[in-house]
Structures are given as C-alpha cells and as structure tokens.
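Problem: given the chain below (119 residues), write out its structure.
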Amino acid sequence: QVQLVESGGGLVQAGGSLRLSCVSSASIFSINTMGWYRQAPGKQRELVATMAGGDINHYADSVKGRCTISRDNAKNTVYLQMNSMKPEDTAVYYCYARYLSGLRYSEAWGQGTLVTVSS
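Solution.
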C-alpha cells in the first residue's frame, strides 16, 4: 500500500510563494496518477493539480499560471510550486495517488499540510 507524506505548508503573505512536497513510499514510476487537492474551511475538497503517466498535467482554473506540479523520480517525490499566492489559496493541501494494486486501482491520501495566506 502506498503511503504519502506531505510537507512544506505554512504561513505566507499574499503574493508570496510556497513549495509543497509529497514523498511516496513506493516508486512513483508505479503510480498512475499523482496530484494535489485542497480543502478550505467549510468547503469541499477540490482538485488543484494532477500529473498522469507521460507527464500529462492538469490544473484547476483557479491556479492555472500560478502553480506547477513536478516530480523527482529519484526521490519518489512530487512537488507543487505555488506562486502569486492569494488568501483564497488558504486550505489544507493533500497529496493523492492512484495506482494499480493487483488487478484493481487503489487510492492513497496524505495527512495534509496547512497553507495559510495572509492578506
């Protein structure tokens, strides 16, 4: 079973930058899709960015042009670089993985890392 551990959250001023990291317990070569979701207080969890096989990246409209998802295969780590941050980016950010386990797909979530953007 894949385990994910996020880090890099914290307090940042509006307009600032932050980079989140997600370390996988399994080789990310074996993972079909990795990504980041976020959940703001009182709101549903929403997609931020995903990276599928072949480096096919997808971003939510709210972060396009401000966020970049990338990976370091040697470190089994996926990153989310966030720039020009806004107070509405404040949320708990979760790392996500979808992978083939036997003949079925499974999902894994990290414990979340809190990002707070002050105005």
